[in-house]
Amino acid sequence: MHGGQYQVASPKLHHCHYSLTDSSFADSEDEEAEAPPPRTPLQKLTTDMCKDRKTIKELMIGRRVGFYKVRGEIGCGTFSRVKMAFHALAKDKVALKVLDKTRLDAQAQRLLSKEISSMELLQHPNVVRLYEVVETPSRLYLVLEYAGGGDLHNKICNEGKCIDNTSKIILAQILSAIKYMHDINIIHRDLKAENVLFTSSSCVKVADFGFSTRVSNRTDALDTFCGSPPYAAPELFRDESYLGPPVDVWAMGVLLFFMVTGTMPFRAETMGKLRRCIIDGAYTIPPWVAGPCQKLIRGILRPVPADRYAVDQMMGCDWLLPVEFPWSLVRQKPVSSLQSLLGSEYGELEEEEEEEIRSSLEELGFTSVHPRINRPTDSRSPVTGVYRILLHRAQKRRGCDCPPVVRGMVRDPKREGLGAYRGLRHTSKLCLLS
Ligand code: ATP
């Protein structure tokens, strides 16, 4: 079978079968004879997936996966290739992470299922979204939000260190994402510059949840060494077990150092020396780094986890005071389920955003029948995929993916010899989408 969960390949093309849908998805032979009403985009697409030779060929050769038209490759990882794709109905661009199931050993499969289950729970402006999972006998496709602005590692390697305000804007978004994850007991465990992506409008998207884990409590001890050694906290090398949140905080300290200096705080020719450097906390901050930023780095890169700044202390630090987020524009309440959206009458929905999603779904040809039989809460459903894409589009229209801005100045007493002043109040910063 090709093309994902959609059982479109059959010996006789006109007898093909679209497995996850009701009969209204595709035209039947009888309806064709009777001059049917104009087909909806959904009916046209699903009929093409069953009957149109070109579409079927594209599904068979991997130029289409489910409802997605696949384009060029954007990158590759240890177990995956990432391609750009478009949703054939919603038309939005997505990133398709393609995994060859035959190359995944038992451990890689466990990591992948954790990646999917963590991403299922995450909906935040600074976290890459998972829209859908499509599976074939040989491949697994994670359909992800597309972040087309490159990654932080490449940005610094190509352009050099970031200026102070840019570093603030980037760190504040990473911090907001991590605070949100920790609040729902998800630990990332692989924060590094390569996993900090940007959209084309410079909004930060934390990616790669392959090493993430869900704890029942933030004080749960973990014991698996995860992540990249230059970003690893000393307790990972030193202790039998560790707590999740301080490990992500440490990695943010390394990231911050890397952003403001263009170099890594801990460097060594061998792993043994790197380990020693990290355990000893041996790093030097260049004197030209702004005082409040130096203070933040020193608060984070402390070898004993209990002494290390917590996420809330980072959020309250002087250096990040002038960062202002526009996310008050984004609704705080969860959106109605797909089932209740499509089951409601016009005018019944409270929110403009929900009306917008419902009318887009209806224009495409979705009715309340589709979520009933297509597991709408499950990522492995094409109905979920289109719903999540439309939901995100509506949220973006309301400013959800706007990067924060830096307002005013916080003086650096070390450089200017003046008393520090706080021009901005804490209330304006780091609002979270919950
Ligand atoms: P590994 O899996 O070994 O940790 P990795 O993190 O580089 O490696 P992937 O997450 O598969 O692997 O990403 C591979 C490449 O695709 C990276 O260069 C990354 O920048 C790019 N990429 C990943 N996700 C997206 C996305 N959502 N949007 C745009 N590009 C992406």
Automatic annotation (TrEMBL):
One of its GO terms (molecular function) is ATP binding. Pfam families: Pkinase (PF00069). ATP binds at residue 97. It catalyses: L-threonyl-[protein] + ATP = O-phospho-L-threonyl-[protein] + ADP + H(+); L-seryl-[protein] + ATP = O-phospho-L-seryl-[protein] + ADP + H(+). Residues 68-320 form the Protein kinase domain. It comes from the Eukaryota. Its EC number is 2.7.11.1. Transmembrane segments: none annotated. Keywords: ATP-binding, Kinase, Nucleotide-binding, Serine/threonine-protein kinase, Transferase. InterPro entries: Kinase-like_dom_sf, NIM1K_STKc, Prot_kinase_dom, Protein_kinase_ATP_BS, Ser/Thr_kinase_AS. GO terms for cellular component: cytoplasm. GO terms for biological process: intracellular signal transduction; microtubule cytoskeleton organization. CDD domains: STKc_NIM1. Belongs to the protein kinase superfamily. This is non-specific serine/threonine protein kinase.
